Amino acid sequence: MKKRNSQGHTMIQQKLLIIDGHSMAFRAFFALPPENFTTTTGQATNAVYGFTTMALRLIEEHQPTHIAVAFDTKVKSFRSDEYPEYKAGRAETPQEFKGQIGLIKQVLETVGITWITKDGFEADDILATLAKQGDEAGMKVLVASGDRDSFQLITDNVNVIYPGRTPADLKIMDAAAVEERYGVPPQWYPHIAALTGEKADNLPGVPGVGEKTAAQWVMKYAGLAGVLANADKIGGKRGEALREHEADVLRNRRLNELLTNLELPYNVADLTREPVNRQAVNELFDVLEFNRLRKRVFDLDANADSNEEIDDTRTIETLELKLVSDGFQNWISQVPDQAVLAVASEYVKTELNALAIYYATEGTGHCYALEPRFLSDTEQKELEDLLTSHAVITHEAKRLRHAFRECGFEIGELAEDVELEAYLLGPDQREYSLPTLSEKYLQRSLPVAESAQLSLLRDFSELAGQAQVVYDLHEVLFKQLETTQLAELYRGLELPVQADLYELEKHGVAMSMDVLNQLLEELTEQVEVAEEAAYNAIGHKVNLASPMQLQTVLFEELQMPKTKKTKRGYTTNAEALVELYEKTQHPFLQHLLAHRDKIKMRQIVEGLISAVGADGRIHTTFQQTVAATGRLSSTEPNLQNIPARTAEGMRIRGAFVPGTGFDYLLTADYSQIEMRLMAHMSKDEALIEAFKSGEDLHRTMAAMVFAVPVEEVTPALRSQIKATSYGLAYGLSSYGLSQQLGISVPEARKLKEKYFERFGGVGRFLGEVVEEARERGFTATMMGRRRYLPDLNSGNTNLRAMAERAALNAPIQGTAADIIKLAMHLVMRVLRERGLASRVLLQVHDELVLEVVASELNEVIQIVTDVMSGAAELSLPLDVSFGVGASWQDAAH
DNA sequence: ATATAGACGTA
DNA sequence: CGTACGTCTATATC
């Protein structure tokens, strides 16, 4: 890369790459399975390999003229002197890792890269010192580090390369990126970290203060010093907590400040890349048994030599963006038949405000942007034809479908959706907005769309840029789906399901206002009665919905025994209240519990009432990209958590009714699908047999475990086994099981052991699932859906245990999600093909709710049960049960 | 208006 | 100290 200096002749812009050797090697170590990277002599090389590929990639991509790698040393740093608990609680570094650092240093030496350590300091401090020197010397500096503390180094000329989930996923963080993500300029990032604390380094912060609050304070008072100076002006609990923990905050800040004035054995100018020592590389790579890497290393050298001679005058921007403000039909006529059209859209609420359509031909991008509300009928027809006759790429297609409908037209087959693609590639991300995806997959920043503006002289270039990003994203994402064997799941399942969900949302579900109003009236009455009774029991009013006020009443006024601790006091949840009632028999507790119950019900009914639309139906939104396991979720309102467990709660389901033109609601659900999948995937013969007996599953299993005849299984034994079975699929501990069953921990442990004696295959399976996930980095469902769990290798015991439980559960919950999605899609397809009016309205994880015409009832039941039970081929049948009725309540079974 | 904690509904 | 979700209320602070 070149730039012109003031004298007018070209000079090379110097670029310095500094890598945190330890942190990058550590990530590589955990990302790559050691058994694939062990030499014939037994030397583990996964960290060496991972580090080397990562470094090569950085060099190839950024072509630095100067480069250095910094390492920590064994000598404790000054930070530990200041705070002995620093980084305490971290797991011991694995032995196989330690040995590889030496090898990495050897690799660096053979390829001509400088490495640096300094006793008493951390690699971070070396990075900071070099970054500062580089910046001052006018160099462009890239700092590769997995430590967020390095963000404080960012300036106009210093960027941080921060690894994402996988080692291949490297994000460039500049000032804008940090501000976008954390809400403060980079130099203040450590101020936030000091306030919130740092778990990994065992540095507690101010309780109750998270990233948002910290960022707000720091911005308001212009830095941490200002925050502390004005601590007395910050009122309330948080202000109090801040003043109380000032010492912690100051300590955190001292510890996370990186030193920029270390005496190092090298100056930045010394850090040029030396030629690769080919012979040494050959010898070392022979030992390491790296073969493919050799060529990349040698190529690197060749490029470095020629780098200085190339006069790089090519324009990088080869795309010409054509923006047309009129002549829509004329533009359309020029679109080639085989062009792939990327669509970007801009909304005001749900309404489509503007649209950009983009396609690329050889070296040129073409884009047309328009505001659909100004289209004439003919033009609108043209647009429909254009979109239906071409392959289309979108972002959030379901939203676009709804918006198109509001404009007065429907789009049939919309092909690709980059949001779904990104979701399948990384289902744990909580956000798939276009700017986020652009940054992550294209390393291109995209301005976050401003609020939509009205036409008059508006600038469409931003929207055009978005359409181009949609187009480019698909190229990248689909390729990645193919290499990860996810393309089939995407095309064959998620895309069709998205179109199905659009239909579900469009239809909505009819509500009986009479039932809702009746319920509201009753519940309001009951709430008032319980409230009154509660007040009388203690002799005064109190806000029953305030845990804080309740604590005062229960533990101070009434001096009741303390319950389990929460963050700021003692719990007042239902479980604890029941326990307190058993101990104290105080009537207040009864009334409080009744009040909780009734007010919760009323709140649900109120929510439903306000969600009923003008058509008398509720149109929920199904989220297809939020649940990391592959499940759907439902929002505004959530129709997947309507009460079902109590008769009282079920009455709310009585308000869900067939709409005009329909006669019944039909529900069909999989019975015990997760346990069946456990049986199938674990191949546990006893469990499969228990299912095949056709008798009550938990009862049969209890008889097997306790070696008694089925008739002798008591309800208590049955429920113990039931709890154990479901608990296991969630990674339940002996402690948790003991809590749930009200038995001692040793008893719970014994129960688990006994269970596994009979169902050994289940235990083996669960163990294997976690191990495989640890090695591969992800779990997979039967249909190949992945969930990445990098924390399986975390040094943090808590994080690791959490990831292990998620790993146990993800393949089971995820496979069940795959199956019901497929079943739903097939049911809808068959209903459509048969020309039936009956239709699917809701999906509740293992259940479908349909609205049925009486004359079609038998056929629909047949279709639903056949299709659902046939949706997957397992070693045991998928049982489906169904119910029909005049409401969701009556359709229960 | 917005963030956080606590509680609780579903599979 | 059991997985996966969403929503409501209180509370504190803007």
From TrEMBL:
Enzyme Commission number(s) of this protein: 2.7.7.7
Pfam families assigned to the protein according to its UniProt record, in alphabetical order: 5_3_exonuc (PF01367), 5_3_exonuc_N (PF02739), DNA_pol_A (PF00476)
Class of enzymatic activity (EC top level): transferase
SMART domains given in the database record: 53EXOc, HhH2, POLAc
Family statement: Belongs to the DNA polymerase type-A family.
Cell membrane keyword on record: no
Top-level taxon of origin: Bacteria
Domain DNA-directed DNA polymerase family A palm: 649-856
Official protein name in the record: DNA polymerase I
GO molecular function, one term: 5'-3' exonuclease activity
GO process terms (BP): DNA-templated DNA replication; double-strand break repair
Gene: polA
Catalysed transformations (reactions): DNA(n) + a 2'-deoxyribonucleoside 5'-triphosphate = DNA(n+1) + diphosphate
Keyword entries, A-Z: DNA damage, DNA repair, DNA replication, DNA-binding, DNA-directed DNA polymerase, Exonuclease, Hydrolase, Nuclease, Nucleotidyltransferase, Transferase
Job description of the protein: In addition to polymerase activity, this DNA polymerase exhibits 3'-5' and 5'-3' exonuclease activity. In addition to polymerase activity, this DNA polymerase exhibits 5'-3' exonuclease activity.
Annotated 5'-3' exonuclease domain residues: 14-274
